[in-house]
Amino acid sequence: MDRPYTILSCAMSIDGRIDDTSPERLRLSNEADFAEIDELRAGCDAILVGAGTLRVDNPRLLVRSPLLREHRREQGRTENLLKAVLTRGGDVDPGARFFSTGDAGAVVYTGGPGVATATERLAGRPDTDPPAEVVDAGDPPTAEAILNDLAGRGVTRLLVEGGGHIHTLFLTSGLADELRLAVAPFLVGEQDAPRFVLPGAYPYSPQTPMRLVEARALGGIAVLRYALNPGER
Ligand SMILES: NC(=O)c1ccc[n+]([C@@H]2O[C@H](COP(=O)([O-])OP(=O)(O)OC[C@H]3O[C@@H](n4cnc5c(N)ncnc54)[C@H](OP(=O)(O)O)[C@@H]3O)[C@@H](O)[C@H]2O)c1
User: Fold this and answer.
1) EC number(s) per UniProt (predicted)?
2) Sheet of 132-136, strand order
3) For residue range 188-216, what is the model confidence (pLDDT) as tens digits?
């Protein structure tokens, strides 16, 4: 399949949690790590998150650095990335910052009854908002269908920024190329805190592990990069 080069990025605690259960977002990165992620974003064409992340964090998913945005403009690209969200049920908030910010538009990947629900939810958005499209990616939606559709939109490099359900989908599918983990030097220790991944049938076993390509300290954060593609392991 002709698909985008796919990078998964996640910041987690030592006990593998990507947030805690408090209403405020848990800070798992430092400024240096945020700057690296911003560069990673700027080098991609699209960014994907799960509907859970949209509901909890209400993220903008923009390129933060004016210099990086300018660099993209000079290359004839949009300042920001095409945004994508994955939802089974299609219940996305049309007023979310995900839909109202940026200059490259957004795609909602869903399937089954989710298509009608998402289409209805997005119908009343202001004309001034960037375009947003609902795409049927199967029932249930698959990583393969999403990657195919993104490839058809000219996306050659995709950044997947979580949360845990979306990382689980891409890691079990074996359709990702790179994993970047930022590990914060503490434990969350809460039973119900969201996890980096859920139980699943992963192709990365002790016999067929990922390949560690980089491990370094960024202040107190450990940055780990793994190659996932069998050809690159
Ligand atoms: N530290 C980090 O790097 C990082 C990054 C991102 C998010 N987070 C945190 O992660 C938490 C959210 O993670 P999460 O795991 O709960 O949610 P998530 O992975 O962002 O999204 C889960 C939602 O995605 C949809 N979904 C899941 N599997 C699907 C599939 N196979 N096909 C189609 N849709 C599917 C469902 O949406 P519907 O319910 O709409 O059907 C599901 O509720 C938040 O606390 C956020 O702060 C942390």
Assistant:
1) 1.1.1.193
2) 132-136, 106-110, 82-86, 46-50, 157-160, 5-12, 178-183, 221-227, 211-218
3) 999 999 999 999 999 999 999 999 999 99
Minimal-distance CA residue to ligand 1 atom 32: 141
Task: Summarize pLDDT for 144-172 with one digit per residue, the tens.
Answer: 999 999 999 999 999 999 999 999 999 99
Which pLDDT score is estimated for 229? 82
Nearest CA to ligand 1 atom 7: 163
Our mutation pick for probing the ligand 1 site, out of 57, 83, 149, 165, counting the most ligand atoms within 8 A of Cβ, is 165
The atom number, within ligand 1, closest to the CA of 165 reads 19
Q: Check pLDDT > 60 for residue 233.
A: no
| Residue 133 near residue 110, CB atoms below 8 Å | no
Distance of CA 111 to the CA centre of its chain: 19
Q: Which residues line ligand 1 (CB under 6 A)?
A: 10-12, 18-19, 25, 28, 49-53, 56-57, 86-89, 91, 140-141, 161-166, 169, 194
Q: pTM of this prediction?
A: 0.97
Structure tokens at 86: 């994955």
